[in-house]
Amino acid sequence: MLFYDFEVFKYDWLVVVMDMTAKKTHVIINSPEKLEALYKANQREIWCGFNSRHYDQYILKAILCGFDPKKVNDYIIVRGNPGWKFSSLFNQFPLNNYDVMTNIDRGLKSFEGFMGNDIRETSVPFDIDRPLTKDEISETVKYCKHDVEQTIQVFLRRKGDFEAHLGLVKLACEGKPLNLSLISKTKPQLSAIILDATQQPHDDEFDIDFPCSMRIQKYSEVVRWYENPENRCYQKDRKKNQLDIMVASVPHQFGWGGVHGALTKYHGTGYFLNMDVASLYPSLMIQYNLHSRNMSDPQKYVRIYEQRLKYKAEKNPLQAPLKLVLNSTYGVMKDKNNALYDPLQANRVCVYGQLLILDLVEHLEPYAEIIQSNTDGVLVKMPEGQDEEVWFNLIDDVAHEWEVRTGLKLEFDEYREIFQKDVNNYIILDSWGHWKSKGAYVKELSPLDYDLPIINKALVEFMVHGVSVERTVRECDDLKEFQLVSKISGKYTHILHGNRKIKEKCIRIFASKNRSDAGVQKVHATTGRPAKIPNSPEHCFIFNEEVNGVQVPEQLDKQWYIDLAKKRLKDFGVI
Hints:
Layout (H helix, E strand, L loop, with lengths): L1 E7 L4 E7 L4 E6 L2 H10 L4 E4 L6 H10 L3 H9 L18 E4 L8 H7 L19 H24 L1 H14 L14 H8 L25 H8 L7 E2 L2 E2 L2 E5 L2 E5 L5 E3 L3 E12 L2 H8 L11 H15 L5 H14 L10 H22 L4 E6 L2 E5 L6 H19 L3 E13 L2 E5 L5 E4 L14 H13 L3 H6 L9 E4 L4 E6 L2 E3 L3 E6 L8 E5 L5 E3 L7 E3 L15 H14 L4
Parallel strand pairs: 1-4, 4-5
Antiparallel strand pairs: 1-2, 2-3, 6-7, 8-9, 9-10, 10-12, 11-13, 11-14, 12-13, 14-15, 15-16, 17-20, 18-19, 18-21, 20-23, 21-22
Helix pairs in contact: 2-3, 4-5, 6-7, 6-11, 7-11, 9-12, 10-11, 12-13, 14-16
């Protein structure tokens, strides 16, 4: 396995390749011959990069073809074209390319920032209009090596993703010799291959119907909304097309995504039941024949579903790639470039799911308080003063009737306390002190998602353990816990710290006690107007060096973090 990264200038190019098997680093500068030799020696290996699916592999192939890599660079970066369109000659150089980046990533620098690593960038501008000097080449190599090392770190933290991806490749080759070139495909593309899908035209995107098992009476207005031809569109007046309606005294939204409804700024104690539908979308596809019509054999999806349940019960890691196939199918039915593309079936899955959840809510409403309903479940609270066993049996009877009628299965969890900002942000606790959370404010952070961690910790400690925000913040002496990592998009040209232009587009920000320390702004590429970076303090300092193990300096304004944590707690309605 090789990890690689290209840097391209007008008159120069270079690549750093780290061979993990041979434990050797290759640095190639302006030498197509050396690159060709390295490629031929490792043609059967897996080449890993960050954003290499869209960029680096085409720079590699361009050089092997004898093209000017700067022209390909500008074709992709400046003009926004997909690299494969540049030349059909690229097909002469197959590459087993695995991209560590996913389509929701904010960029490698963001990950470097979250991990606490050095995020300073080279001082050598990429638009330099002359050959690089020896010192500039040396500096560029240094930073390129750093990026390859960081890519390896991200890969190791996402090793499970790679193993699942490789599992998909093996599934796609089932009964045939292993074709490692499929590692270059995306997970949705591999899912289409596994399910033997063939692209077909469809022009019936909104010809939806309703589940025959549905029994909705009180909230039939929702059904009528879907029946109305005028609502069969995703947007109206440039806004998301949805129905806002009160259901069981809770504001709900229905539309062409999942249903959402929740009491906002809600804190409650008592006996709560959470009922989630097991594997809702895959179950709907199987129960109501909502698979993509492009599959040659829909029963293959059923067999994969059953095999995954078997592996899951056995705690067999082979369940991971099967889960990917099952769960990705719904999303790609809206992707015009995927062989599973079938927007009608995607809409039917979505609408069936929402209406059957509404059906469940309607039947639960007479017996319990609805706290929230979401895409695949309902959270209810038992009325005060009721016998818990009697009440549970009553709810269980309602749920059982719904399960038998709809063919779907509910999974029950009991809880005793909830802090809820909205349907997407909450903490819920059970009798044994275990808890789970959802949402940016209180989610469990990871080394690749470590932004304002002290705020998340302060909120969780307060709501779960009753620890004051002041205590959590003031007792922490690890600077990394206070970091705000911010990366500007291509809509902005640069960042300003006061009047000083910052060369990095990704920075690590900390609140400062020094009133002379300015705030940070991003400058719009079109208008040239500066705008405050979201969540950033009015006074701050920037620390882009490695922050791991660095203690809190005197200038850190801990009160700013305390105030922000309390502001967010107010959003939960608890202070």
